[in-house]
Amino acid sequence: MAYRVCFVCTGNICRSPMAESVFRARVAEAGLDGLVEVDSAGTGGWHEGDGADPRTVSVLRESGYGTEHRARRFEASWFSRLDLVIALDSGHLRALRRLAPTPQDADKVRLLRSYDTAAGDDLDVPDPYYGGMDGFEECLEMVEAASEGLLAAVRAHVEGQAA
C-alpha cells in the first residue's frame, strides 16, 4: 500500500500545488514512484476546479516541474486514507488539526518547513498570491529546501514498512 502525502494551503492554487509538483518530482527521482502518492488541496473551496495560478505554473515550468493541476478543497474524511498532511503555514496547521476527526489524525499534520533544518523559527511559507513573481520564486525556494528533508522522512517510513 502506498504512503500518501497531501499538501494543503488556502485555495490550492499557489503554494500547495507547487509543493505537490516539487515533491512528486523528488519522489520520482528517488525511485519511490508507486510507493508514495502525492496530492494537494486547499482549506477553502474558492478555486475548486481551477488550475494553478499562472504565476505558479510559470515558476514551476521554468524550473522543469510538472504543472498539471485542478484545485479542490480538503475534506475531513480524507484523513483516514492519508499518512501525512503537510500544511504550508501555521494557520493551515491549526485549521487542519481542528478538522481532524481523531487525535491520531491531528498528529498526521505537519508544517512543510519543519523538514528544513535551515528554516529557523519562522516555519510559514508566505502566501505569494497578492504579490509579484518574486514571491512565487521565494516560495519555490522554500518548498525545494524543505522537500529534501521531507523526502528523507518519507523514505525512512516507506523503507521501514518494506523491511
Automatic annotation (TrEMBL):
Record CDD domains: LMWPTP
Family indicated by similarity: Belongs to the low molecular weight phosphotyrosine protein phosphatase family.
Gene3D superfamilies the UniProt entry points to: 3.40.50.2300
Primary enzyme class: hydrolase
Domain Phosphotyrosine protein phosphatase I: 3-153
E.C. number: 3.1.3.48
Pfam family, one: LMWPc
Keywords recorded for this protein, A-Z: Hydrolase, Protein phosphatase
InterPro entries: LMW_PTPase, Ptyr_pPase, Ptyr_pPase_sf, Tyr_phospatase_low_mol_wt
SUPFAM superfamilies on file: Phosphotyrosine protein phosphatases I
PANTHER family: LOW MOLECULAR WEIGHT PHOSPHOTYROSINE PROTEIN PHOSPHATASE, LOW MOLECULAR WEIGHT PROTEIN TYROSINE PHOSPHATASE
Protein name stated in the entry: protein-tyrosine-phosphatase
